[in-house]
Design a protein that fits this description.
It is an enzyme of class 2 (transferase). GO terms for molecular function: N-acyltransferase activity; UDP-3-O-[(3R)-3-hydroxyacyl]-glucosamine N-acyltransferase activity. With about 350 residues, the chain is an alpha/beta fold. It contains four helices and 40 strands. The strands form six sheets. The protein has a twelve-stranded mixed β-sheet with strand order 8-11-14-17-20-25-28-31-34-37-39-40. The chain has a ten-stranded parallel β-sheet with strand order 9-12-15-18-21-26-29-32-35-38, with no helix packed on it. The protein has a nine-stranded parallel β-sheet with strand order 10-13-16-19-24-27-30-33-36, with no helix packed on it.
């Protein structure tokens, strides 16, 4: 995407930074160091790409304060504490410019139940449904085709994207972002087998999503069998994540794509769960735990541990085993030679 953004305005938006070099122009794009063209803004967010700074054609490069060297003519280095975060701040400025908040009000195709409460500063887009008893706070945006069930509460400043469904009695906190296709409060997966028949267990609980949570596209968070399924403040959930009934997730967790968390498990604060991890039900993952991608978690993990694998092992042991697995063909070849040598000696 191309745009025009004055360099002086960029520097102003970054705050505390050190500028070296000169360039007379406007920023017209954002790119990686390797692919950048004149007019582009780039950044060094990972030390493995340090060598690419020298050869980059970007006109402006965001760099850590520790970076040594001076820019060539016609290029500007901007040194700051965290280049990646600074780029994110700049992208936020662009987001507000190119995707401004839609005007407040209710679109004529939206369906609002007569006893729903919608704040005057909320935006209800095309073909949205707001059911009986729902409460929509100030600054909330329902983009289009959003369905809110009976007695749903949506807190101030939350943004709900197209084709999101929020089931009856669920609560969405302040400044929550729900990406397209998210389903909050569908029935949990609960059955009792009676005389060979899987009898459905009614799921009469709800989902509570605390403030500042983000949920990725097409993720599902099931309502509780009773009581609540809860997502803690500031937790970020990637696309295609399944969270079962009565799960409780603490604050500040990071849950990457295609994770599945079975019912009644507790995830404490600031846990990081790598992609495609499966977690059984009725266990506890302690605060600060880090789980590597594609892990299988079958038992509780104490706080502060790092694990990976299926079944999950301490991450250092997992790495040692992985290293040894790569050497197995050589081990088998050596064993075969020893076996052949022993056979020859016996036969002779």
């Amino acid at each position: 995407m191309k745009f025009t953004f004055p360099l002086a305005e960029l520097l102003s938006s970054l705050g505390d930074c050190e500028v070296e070099g000169e360039w007379d122009g406007d920023i017209s794009g954002i790119s990686t160091l390797k692919d950048a063209q004149p007019g582009d803004l780039s950044f060094l967010g990972n030390s493995r790409y340090t060598q690419e700074v020298r050869s980059s054609a970007a006109s402006v490069i965001l760099l850590p304060k520790s970076f040594e060297g001076s820019p060539p003519d016609g290029q500007v280095y901007v040194r700051l504490k965290n280049p990646s975060f600074a780029l994110g701040q700049f992208c936020g400025v662009l987001e507000q410019r190119f995707w401004p908040r839609p005007p407040v009000g209710i679109h004529p195709t939206a369906v609002i139940d007569r006893d729903a409460v919608v704040d005057d500063k909320a935006t209800i887009g095309p073909y949205c449904l707001v059911s009986s008893g729902a409460q929509i706070g100030a600054g909330v945006v329902l983009t289009s085709h959003v369905s809110l069930g009976a007695h749903v509460v949506v807190g101030e400043g939350s943004r709900i994207m197209t084709h999101v469904t929020v089931g009856d009695f669920c609560e969405i906190g302040k400044n929550v972002f729900l990406n397209p296709g998210v389903v909050i409060g569908a029935d949990g997966f609960g059955y009792e087998t009676v005389n060979g028949v899987h009898e459905k267990v009614p799921q009469i609980g709800r989902v509570i999503i605390e403030d500042d949570v983000e949920v990725g596209a097409n993720s599902a968070i099931d309502r509780a069998r009773f009581s609540e399924t809860r997502i803690g403040q500031g937790t970020k959930i990637d696309n295609l994540v399944q969270i079962g009934h009565n799960v409780r997730i603490g604050k500040g967790c990071l849950i990457v794509a295609q994770v599945g968390i079975s019912g009644s498990t507790t995830i404490e604060d600031y846990v990081v769960i790598g992609g495609q991890t499966g977690i059984v039900g009725h266990i506890t993952i302690g605060s600060g735990v880090r789980i590597g991608a594609q892990s299988g978690i079958s038992k509780s993990i104490p706080p502060g541990h790092a694990v990976q694998g299926s079944p999950a092992l301490d991450i250092r042991l997992f790495q040692r085993i992985t290293a040894l697995q790569r050497r197995l063909p050589d081990f088998f070849a050596r064993f075969q030679r020893l076996e052949d040598s022993a056979r020859d000696r016996v036969e002779s």
